[in-house]
Amino acid sequence: MGFSAVARVTSDKWIACAIHDEINFGLPVGGELKLETTICNEIRQHQQAVIIDHVDEDENFKGHHTPLMYGFQSYISVPIILKNGNFFGTLCAIDPKPAKLKNPAITGMFSMFADLIAFHMDALDQLDIAEKELKKQQEIAILRDQFIAILGHDLRNPLNAISSSAQLLSRLNLDERGIRIAKIVKDSSFRMNGLIENILDFASGRLGDGITINRTADEDLEKLLVQVIDELQTIWPSRHIKTDFDFKHPVNADGKRLAQLFSNLLANALNYSPADSTIEITAFSTDKEFNLCVANKGKQIPEAAMERLFQPFSRGEVEPNQKGLGLGLYIASEIAKAHDGSLDVTSTPEKTCFTLSIPYKK
Question: Which Gene3D superfamilies match (predicted)?
Answer without folding.
Answer: 1.10.287.130, 3.30.450.40, Histidine kinase-like ATPase, C-terminal domain
